[in-house]
Specification:
single chain, 307 residues, alpha+beta, 6-stranded mixed beta sheet, 5-stranded antiparallel beta sheet
Length: 307
Amino acid sequence: MNTTLLCKFTPNHHHPIFDRFLTIGQVEFLKFSYEEFICHLLGIKPNSDYPCAAIDYQKNHKHYYLYADPVYLSLQRDTFFLEKKLTDDYTKDEIEKLCHALNQTFEDENRVFVLNDQQKLFLQLKKEPHIKTTSIAHIKRQTIDLFMPQGDEAMVWHAFMNEIQMFLFDHPINQDRIRRGLLSPNSIWFSGGGVLPQSIQNPYTTIFSNASFLKKALSIDAQISPQTLDNVLQDNINNNTFIAFEDEKEIDRILEVVWNNFKKRKIKNLDIYVSYQGNLLHIHNRFIQLLKVWKKINTVKNYFNAH
């Protein structure tokens, strides 16, 4: 088995560890968002989408959930580009007002906009839609036509999103943000649809994490209890350990513990995954590579700069 290390860095946060994070392993970029990859690791299969929104919402096992992220689209000649996800730009009061305003216009017997405990916006559906969506993490700066919902009900959802754009155009909530010099959302982006899974497949004997989404996914199996990161010590990491963190202050200490165990052959295979600005970098390290002195040592920063 492999020891797995998963790191997530927010787009606005370039961690200095990027410059010191050395590796000699085999490198590849994977086509997963951070949340999709956690689903993949835990054996949660996609049904069109990975059910990331339902895992993140957590409160209901019956309904279908989609992320409903406020976004800013820029007009480029005859198309739109998705420039920025604005989910984290809202205050608690603002996102509650937006959710209420959307429901006043668009709520019906099948759908309603809801907020989770972290004040993220979701669309709750009583019936499963026949669409496939695209995570914002996969969207590059190009026409959104390539990433709009696909499937049997695609045109219905395109029309729904157009109605929301017209609704947001001159809504008082947006006008207030503009007056305060803030970027105003002109669309809602739907993604990560699904129903909360009944079970997961955990391949690890030990898990250390303070990562919110991972803990929510693990909570599907009541028998799994991840340990906090302060329990990552030299003697309690084996060849079947999973460590996940998001901008944690302990990253330097944890990397040192993991790397020392790797050099001492307590860990024979080390898989490092780094999620940053929508890209997921995979570095597979085997102990034997340490013996290949001609192998070039590189930094994570250089891999992302070259991609």
